[in-house]
Amino acid sequence: MKEFLDLLVDWGNLGFIEFLNKLDPSHFQNVILGMLTMLVPIGVAVLSYFFEKRAEGKVDTNLELFILLKEILKVDKILFFSTLVLFNFIFYKNYFWVFKIVLIFSFLAFIIWLIWSPFRNIWKWVFESDKDFALKFLKKYKMDKKILLKSWESVWVSKGDSLEEEYTEIFCGLVNEIISEGDYNSATIMANVYRKHIKNRDYYLIATVVLPNLLKWIKIETKMEREGKFKEIKFFIVRGGFLEITFLMIF
User: Fold this and answer.
1) What is the mean pLDDT of residues 30-42?
2) Distance of CA 42 to CAs 68, 111, 170, 225, Å?
């Protein structure tokens, strides 16, 4: 660090390009590693808390954990960009001076984002509304299927919620998207999660949101039956248990 400060003092005696060439990239790498080191205790504390809750059988904490890691702390993005910047500084000495400037500005932008983004999200999550993060997270279908399943399990295991209507609409839209992609196995799994906790659901929402979508899926089933693909879609409708929802509404 002393060498870096001395270099700044001598800035006036050096040409700009020479100044760039004499910068030691290890200083930038040390700053990033130091910032990541500061985040480790926070991560350990968070994971310990949630794993303790999970060990107690509280499935509904899974969604909170995924939201905290992916939407609030953005751990995956922090690790990706940290690795990217650290890797580029390894070759700093070999870069043309223009790329050195770009890399330094990228480093500064990353440090600002690393400090600002997680703490801003934590503030909003704690003092404003954590529901916005839940809705945003659940709308992301392209996430890992295991995370997707555990997240919706956390949603449906609870009895009633002020956002159950929004959750139900997102869920049905998600199932529609999965069916349109031909992934009937995932649609079956999702249906089973909903059916498993059907007694906790609002029957009005079942009638007004789920049932119209069910009729749409049965229409798809009929069309596929005519095309000789009945087994695939029947696997979803019957095993997924949405017919049971219909019987529940009728009887």
Assistant:
1) 81
2) 12, 18, 32, 54
